[in-house]
Amino acid sequence: MKSYVIIGGGIAGVSAVEGIRSVDGEAKITLVSSEKTCAYSRPLISYYLEGKAKLDTMGYRESDFFEKNGVTVLRGVSAERLEPESGSVVLSDGQKLSYDALCVAAGSSPFVPPFSGLDTVEKKFSFMTIDDALSLEKELGADKRVLIIGAGLIGLKCAEGIRDRVKSVTVADLAPHALSSILTPESAEIVERHLEKSGIELLLGDTADSFDGNSAYMRSGRTVEFDILVLAVGVRANTALVKAVGGEVNRGILINGKMETSIPGVFSAGDCAEFKSGVLAILPAAHIGGFTAGVNMAGGSECYADPVKMNSIGLFGLHIMTAGLYEGDALGDPDRRFFVKDGYLSGFILIGGVEKAGIYTSLMRDKTPLDTIDFDAVMRSPSLLPFGREYRKEKLGGAV
């Protein structure tokens, strides 16, 4: 009987289990998770703080998923060292697990800049896991002032989750605009106005230079007093396991279309893996990559379909969706921006009206030549009518 080991209990790790079981229903599977809680949906942690989600409803799969799939789960331990020559991995508690194939789905970790005086801040937190959310929750109160360093997806979702549970929330970022990694400056300004109306103070183009207790000394010369500090500057892929044994890494662990690393018998998926489009830290990529890795670990034949780079986020009732690359000609308005390159849709930004956005992602995924449809009409109002009868017949199965 073959033996498989999966490092990481997130979406990629769970999907790797499903991939293995789709090919091999009998093999031994051991999943190693550094978290005591695994197989949950990380995007829901802000909704938990906001009171819109409960811990027992945040599971990515049913509570008996691992039992039904015959998986041994080792919680609260981490992988310390790979020994690929003998096909084994050494864990933080001293255990050594043997494997026929192993998947590193170790995710990413918060990046913490070397701020001077950070060690003097008593109440400081990251915001990536359930444990982070639970620790932060213990300190929230109507008299607390919160400073969040980082106006990206993680920082702003944290701000949304806690805004009504504290006195004030200030978000600072060295970038000149919020969500600078996924929005153009003009689009970001729409979101920034909405955040400020929702009670979030934004300090953009500014960040902490140093700390002294509950005082943050900003690069602008301003001093921000706070009670709670949340660090959401960014994340880094967890590549150390593979890198330590000579595996090829860049920003992430380099993989091929079968999710194989450069180390024989070792696969990788999720936020720690890097394919052609780079590190794609989004849920669809974690699911597709994990499942693909699992199938191939078990001897199947599956090719990774690199998904469209896409983000979907809601902030204080404002829905935002972005996809693709912002290359070529920019068309439309800041809240409905489309990018066209060489006659194809290369990317888009939608703020507010995100309904039927799947039509735009389909155009990108199918590489539909825009001169074959009435794209002006599609930009104004997404529907299948401008695509023509034959296209609608194909997509709708005859219902035209």
- Biggest sheet: strands side by side, in what order? 3-2-1-7-19
User: How much helix, percentage-wise, in residues?
Assistant: 10-25%
Radius of gyration: 23 Å
Q: Tell me, what is the CATH class of the largest domain?
A: Alpha Beta
Tell me the quaternary state.
Answer: single chain
Total helical elements = 11
> What fraction of residues sit in β-strands?
25-35%
What is the mean predicted local confidence, pLDDT?
93
Give the CA-based shape: globular
What is the number of domains?
A: 3
CATH architecture of the largest domain: 3-Layer(bba) Sandwich
Question: How does the major sheet shape up?
Answer: 5 strands, parallel
Structural class: alpha/beta
Could you list some keywords that capture this structure?
3 domains, 11 helices, alpha/beta, 400 residues, FAD/NAD(P)-binding domain, five-stranded parallel sheet, Enolase-like, domain 1
Task: Detail the topology: elements first, then pairings.
Blueprint: E1 3-7, H1 11-21, E2 28-33, H2 45-50, H3 65-68, E3 71-75, E4 79-83, E5 88-91, E6 96-98, E7 101-104, E8 108-110, E9 124-125, H4 130-137, E10 145-149, H5 153-162, E11 168-173, H6 185-197, E12 200-204, E13 208-212, E14 215-218, E15 223-225, E16 228-231, E17 235-237, H7 240-243, E18 253-254, E19 266-268, E20 273-274, H8 283-297, E21 310-315, E22 318-324, E23 329-333, E24 336-341, E25 344-351, H9 358-366, H10 375-380, H11 389-396
Parallel strand pairs: 1-2, 1-7, 2-3, 7-19, 9-16, 10-11, 10-16, 11-12, 18-20
Antiparallel strand pairs: 4-5, 5-6, 8-17, 13-14, 14-15, 21-22, 22-25, 23-24, 24-25
Helix pairs in contact: 1-8
